[in-house]
Amino acid sequence: MRARILVVDDELSMREFLAILLDGEGYLVDQAESAEHALACMADQHYDMVISDVSMPGLGGIDLLTRIKADSPDTAVLLITAFTTAEQAVEAMKLGAYDYIGKPFKVEEVKVLVRKALEKRSLVQENKRLKAEVQERFGFSGLIGKSKQMREVYDLIAKVADSMANVLITGESGTGKELAARAIHYNSPRRNARFEAVNCGAIPETLIESELFGHMKGAFTGAITDRPGLFEQAEGGTLFLDEIGEVPLQLQAKLLRVLQEREFRRVGGGSALKADVRIVAASNRNLEEQVREGTFREDLFYRLNVVEVRMPSLRERSEDIPLLIEHFYKKYAIWSGTGDIVTPDALLALFNYPFPGNVRELENLVERCVVLGSRVITAECLPPSVRNYHIPSVDAEEVSIPADGMDLQGYLDNLEQRLLVQALERSGGVKKRAAALLGMTFRSFRYRLAKFGMEDD
């Protein structure tokens, strides 16, 4: 996309000269005869750069610079004047001008300054975009859900992020433990340093010590050079130890020393190295049970478990399923964000399915539907193992007629009201989702609420 530049000068000849020069360089150029005119132009059009004379009737170039930086700080500003002084130059740079040149100037000088100013602006914009992308991916927005359980997770992460406390994240596989760890890091003062993650269960026992602490040349067969470990690579940042319960007992003692003394030694090394690293660990196993069994050190457990963040299973927060589906559908397909993305029968099946693989399994399921070409998720595009859950089984033996008989209609009405309330509770009060949960249309659901005088509850 071509950069757009606004040239501001009360002299027509200078404006036209610069406009012709910049147009020849491929830029889109507009002209303004005064600072006031320039501000009016900027109210209607965004400019990548403004080139302005300093001395003009009314508002001068310095005043214009101040107004531009207040309203559009990313816009590059180049000031030109016939009366250059050191004091003016210093003032202009302090106020945010990219540069300051005096008349008469060389054509090539203007070309170079404009090109460099726009390149710098582009780099700043890209840096901001990347930071925003990181925050979008790993900040709280990386964790999807509005359920009570997820709000509790957000609140706990917000409280613990600013501290140096070690955090233990627990929960079943696929619940988003690494996302929670990254959210802690990217919302902490360490956000600008590195986040290093390692799955302790995926590294052979003979290599995990070297992976964490590094090694010296000749420390073992194959160690042909010195190599820093993850503790060094994460210096000043966060080290995420996933599946911490898989770490062998011998290495657990060395991890404990790092947590206590804030120092470690490379494999084969003699001198101790400082460890300015925050530890966030995670496990889908019951570490307290491992402590009782003697496979996990009790002192290490308490060092790691300063604050526990428990990630709820998808079964516990099924009301978040529609939000998660929308998020994953946007990730894997072009979706405008309008209209229903999942049919009521498919949503009912998903609500009832136990999701042993949690959020990760739901993501794979959505990707499967997208790959199969489904623009809307229907029951037909779901795997049979999921689709079969849309009709819950009922045990007839659970209901029996009392010896003295019963009011069948009253019993059914009472049961229907209880199910309506349960559906509303599970859906967070969203009636369309509650209707889908019960496998009925929204209109039918509203009719039943009105039938029992529950429409305003």
From TrEMBL:
Keywords: ATP-binding, DNA-binding, Nucleotide-binding, Phosphoprotein, Transcription, Transcription regulation. InterPro entries: AAA+_ATPase, AAA_lid_NorR, HTH_Fis, Sig_transdc_resp-reg_receiver, Sigma_54_int, Sigma_54_int_dom_ATP-bd_2, Sigma_54_int_dom_CS. Residues 4-118 form the Response regulatory domain. The modification 4-aspartylphosphate is found at D53. Pfam families: AAA_lid_14, HTH_8, Response_reg, Sigma54_activat. Residues 143-371 form the Sigma-54 factor interaction domain. It comes from the Bacteria. PANTHER family: ALGINATE BIOSYNTHESIS TRANSCRIPTIONAL REGULATORY PROTEIN ALGB (PTHR32071:SF113), TRANSCRIPTIONAL REGULATORY PROTEIN (PTHR32071). This is Sigma-54 dependent transcriptional regulator. It comes from Geomonas diazotrophica.
